[in-house]
Each structure stands twice: as structure tokens, then as C-alpha cells.
Amino acid sequence: RADHSQDVQERFGHDPAGNLLMQDRPGPDVVAGNRLISQGDNHYDYDAFGNLIRERCGKGHQLVTEYRYDCQHRLIGVTTPNGQSASYRYDPFGRRISKTVDDITTEFFWQGDKLIAEHHKDKHRSYIYEPDSFRPLIMLEGYGPKEAKPHHYQLDHLGTPQELTTPEGEIVWSAHYRAYGEISRLDIGKVDNPIRFQGQYFDQESGLHYNRHRYYNPDIGRYLTPDPVKLAGGINGYQYVPNPTGWIDPLGLNTCPGGDGCNQRSKIENPPEQLQVDEHSPSPPTPQKNRSYLYRGDSRDPEEIFEKGFESRGESTDLYLHSVNNASPPSNFVPTSTSRKQALVFASGFGFEEGFLYTLKRIPGRDVNKELGTRSKHKNELEIAIPGRIDSKHILGASPVNEDGTYKGYTILNPNREYP
Question: What sequence ranges are listed for the domain Pierisin-like (predicted)?
Fold first, then answer.
């Protein structure tokens, strides 16, 4: 439940996989394989990769919004029920560099993962952020230091803009939000402000929020496409965050507690388990506990692994000899890693073959670096050695990997996996 000012209240439900069910809306919510199929009068269609391609609503489902994607599953076009079309372009890093709506093109400029400016024929805007953060600080409108007009962001505890003010203190933009980020009431709109949740940019033509690696629909509280980080993002690839009043996802990849929770410097000084939304609410769950997985790179086909699991090579229980060469003598440990990046190296055969990245539940094992200390031969592998074997039920899925360590296609879920 979310309680807003002026006695406005929202109620939600969730299924075991974390799919959001809007309890304050008419009609049932139908979810299959974590894909929202229908919600009240709205119906949703997907392509073979799980990308939302069509939304149908209205009488006879005649109001249709269509979405188009490129080969990397990035949204490149939207057509709305009124016939308006929009197209989007990206740079090699996957950052959106332009959008064209009704023949008007807006260009976007980046510094790393932060949007720092946008430009089209009628306007130019620049954005300044708090240090080491996605929290917006100032929006500058106009060209150059003489013409640019500063507007200062006033944020809530999550870093979401509540107001824009001039240096003289005049409020030129003010809004109220629903829990999942949709504006419920625009109180003042003398200037346009597209910044929403941290890392999100509002597209007026579609109602979507561009969230760096994906597009987010605040009306239904879900992403249009599955998580690009596969199972590392959890079993539900469409979920935004566990709790939108206390968590954020600036990149559309991984969640973290709100406020300064995504600030790397603040994580050192204030670990996530010490953060609270406010003093009267319980601490949000820590990402370490909810997002803890093991990874293993392997060339064998998922059909075999999902059936048999992973077996150790032999009977040797000497952890040091295992860390040197687990084939001689044959080790009784199955190597895994806490690092997805390191597991990808093994999945690609060190750059010589295609393979699979297997994601596993965090099961008990021996921390090689911790136990061997300075005797550990490959500290960078961050190995957790699992004694004996890894049962199939602990393997969540497999992601196909190219020779260069990049992903190809989508994750294959293990039908024999054990749910939490």
C-alpha cells in the first residue's frame, strides 16, 4: 500500500515472482512466464524474445500501440493509436542519441551513463548532477553561459524531482507521483521537465521512461523487455524494483536502495543494510542477500546440465591442489565464481569457443581465496569450490555466450530449477 498526500491511497499485490498486480484497478491481472498478458481492458503481446510488441485496449481492442526493436532488442520505434510515430537511434554503447517524433529530431549527449544535454531546433538543455550520483541538481535551458537559465531540482528521498525552482525561488514546475513513477497531478508546468526516477527520462510521445538500457512503463510498473543481465537480475526480468518507495534502478540493470544507495562512495561510508527510507519504516532488504548468485562457465549443452547437474572430477579433497589444477589429481570440488565476469571468461573458452554462462543459487561451498590466503593461485577468479556435485535444481539457467564473451540470444531457464 502507498499513502499519498490529500488522502490518496494505492493498493498493490504481488505474485511469488514479484509481478505487480494492481489491486485498485478493475479486472483481473493475467501473468504467464512473468509476462503481463492482460490487466483489466489492456492486453499485451510479445515476440519470441519476450519483448513487448503490442498493447491493445478500448472497445474491441481497437486502440493499438506497437513497439519495434532492433537485433539487440533495443526499442527503435513506437506507433500510437492516434497514428503518431516515433523512432529512436543509439550509439555503440547502447545509449540513445536521438529520437524523431513527427519529423522533429531531438539529439542526446552523454557523459558515461549520465544524460548531460539534449538539443533540437527550438531548445537546448543541459543537466548537472550531484557528484558520483544520478540525482539531478540543475537543469540549464538555453545556449551558452549568457543565455542559459538555471532551474534547481528539489528532490524527494529517492532523488525524484518534486519541484523546479528559479534562483529567485519561484516554482516553475511541480508534480505529484504515483508509487511506480507515473505523474498523477502536474501542479505547475511553466517549464518542461522530463527527468523522473533516477536515470529515467520521460518520453511524452509514448508515456514511457527511457532508463538507459531499457524502457520502463510507469503505468504498469514494469519494463518492456527482459533484463539484459539475464538471471543476474533475478528470476523476474520485467520487475522494476522490489519496493518503488525505497529502491531505484538508474541503469535499468540492477536495483539498489534509494537516496544515495547507488552512490559508490556512500556504500563505503554507509553500507546498504544501514539505510532507511525514513526512521519510521523498516530497512529495505539488502541487495547482497537478495541478489547473491554463483556463476560457472561451461561448454556443455544446457539440456545435459539441466538433467545431470555438475559433477566433480574425482576424489581429491585437497583445496590447494584443486586451486592449482583440478584435473591432476582429479578434484572432488566443482569450481564456481561469485563473479559473472570471470565466469564469462571460462564460458567463452578464454576467447576460443562458444559456450554457456550458468547461473546458480548461492549454495554452500568453500571460499578458495579466504581459506588459502596468500597460497591462492588465481585470486581474480573469486572461486567458490562446491564439494562433490551441484544438483540440477540449484541451476537457474544458462545464457549462450560468443567466443568474445558477449551474449547471444536469451537465457534458457532450467525447467528443473528449485524455486526459493
Answer: 294-415
Cell, residue 112: 558515461
| Helix, strand or coil, per DSSP, at residue 7 | helix
Nearest to 331 by CA among 352, 344, 355, 313: 313
User: How is the chain split into domains, by residue range?
Assistant: 2-287, 292-413
Residue 266 region by backbone torsions, left for phi larger than 0, else alpha for psi between -120 and 50, else beta: alpha
Closest alpha carbon to 250 in 236, 264, 232, 268: 264
Backbone dihedral angles phi then psi of residue 266, each to the nearest 5 degrees: -70, -25
Write out residues in the chain with pLDDT < 50, as ranges: 264-290
Q: What is the 3-state secondary structure (H, E, C) of 92-133?
A: CCCCEEEEEECCEEEEEEEECCEEEEEEECCEEEEEEECCCC
pLDDT tens digits, 301-342: 999 999 999 999 999 999 999 999 989 999 999 999 999 999
Question: 95-101: long-range contacts (C-beta < 8 A, 24 or more apart)?
Answer: 95/212, 96/210, 99/203, 99/205, 101/205
Which residues in 330-415 belong to E strands, given as ranges?
333-337, 355-361, 366-367, 383-387, 389-390, 395-401, 412-413
Give the C-alpha separation, 231 to 282, whole Å.
Answer: 27
User: Are 12 and 20 within 8 A, CB to CB?
Assistant: yes
Q: Are 152 and 127 in contact (CB under 8 A)?
A: no
Phi-psi region of 154 (alpha: psi -120 to 50; beta: other; left: phi over 0): beta
Contact (CB, 8 A) for 352 and 310: no
C-alpha cell at 371: 581459506
Q: Are 119 and 107 in contact (CB under 8 A)?
A: yes
- Residue 249, phi then psi, degrees to nearest 5: -145, 80
Q: Is the peptide bond before 257 cis (omega within 30 degrees of 0)?
A: no
| CA–CA dist 173, 160 (Å, integer) | 13
For the domain 292-413, what is the CATH code? 3.90.210.10
